Amino acid sequence: MVRLYVNVDHVATLRQQRDARYPDPVLAAALCEQAGADGITVHLREDRRHVQDRDVRVLRETVRGVMNLEMAAVPEMVKIALEVRPDFCTLVPERRQERTTEGGLDVRGRRQEIEAVVGELVRGGLGVSLFVDPDPAVIEAAAGLGASTVELHTGDYSRCPAHARAAREQLARLAVAARAVTDAGMRLAAGHGLDQANVGPVGALPQLEELNIGHGLVARAVMVGLEQATADLRAAIAAGAGRRE
């Protein structure tokens, strides 16, 4: 079964729009886990635009499943990760002017820097995942940095209209990259822009172990509630995984 880790960042985004105390991403995480989520993902950005330090620390105490901390490969975040001790950390790129993460980590251009961060986290007893573009050359570079998991950026696929030729091409691109990940002996994850409507084909990728999904689930939860949105997404992932060759 492909695991679902729900990203609660956009619950925090709604809270920060009014600098309020609600909605609380900690409560949202609990509701998602009750509805079948296998874990919770949270991105503590350097600019603290949505998730706050308090959220990360309380989630570490309350999440029953897996806690995945998304973070930039910078000393401040390494220090927080080693203090909070999530189950694993996903290194992602950050730019202050972006609305959300717009691409994968530059594992070739920042190789030495990223390798040092991965090493420090691993020596601290934390699992590490690298969020990268679905490119075999990038996968090859990522494989030598010491992380155990690669998360494929699914944004290009997610932006394609359903059943369009472009969607099929992007799905084929993901399949090639997924094969490169498993051939390198690394665990395979995927995420970004996925929702109930488009997740099935990604869930069908052979050897896929986990999906990180946030905005699409939170947006649907506005209409049907977090528990229903989580359960429906869980079912869509299971249906996709059932079509694996």
Radius of gyration: 17 Å
Distance linking N and C termini: 14 Å
Overall form: globular
Please summarize the sheet with the most strands.
8 strands, parallel, barrel
Mean pLDDT: 95
Strand order of the largest sheet: 1-2-3-4-5-6-7-8
Work out the strand percent.
Answer: 15-25%
Structural class: alpha/beta
Low-pLDDT segments? none
Topology as a string of helices (H) and strands (E): EHHEHEHEHEHEHHEHEHH
Helix fraction by DSSP (H/I, runs of at least 4): 40-55%
Q: How many β-strand runs?
A: 8
Given the structure, what is the number of helices? 11
Describe the protein:
The chain is of the alpha/beta class and 245 residues long. It has helices at residues 9-17, 25-34, 53-62, 75-84, 111-123, 136-143, 155-158, 165-183, 199-203, 215-224, 226-241; strands at 3-7, 39-43, 66-71, 88-91, 127-132, 149-153, 187-191, 208-213. It has an eight-stranded parallel beta barrel with strand order 1-2-3-4-5-6-7-8, surrounded by eight helices. The protein is globular. The two termini are 14 Å apart.
Helix and strand arrangement:
Elements lengths: L2 E5 L1 H9 L7 H10 L4 E5 L9 H10 L3 E6 L3 H10 L3 E4 L19 H13 L3 E6 L3 H8 L5 E5 L1 H4 L6 H19 L3 E5 L7 H5 L4 E6 L1 H10 L1 H16 L4
Parallel strand pairs: 1-2, 1-8, 2-3, 3-4, 4-5, 5-6, 6-7, 7-8
Helix pairs in contact: 2-3, 2-11, 6-8, 10-11
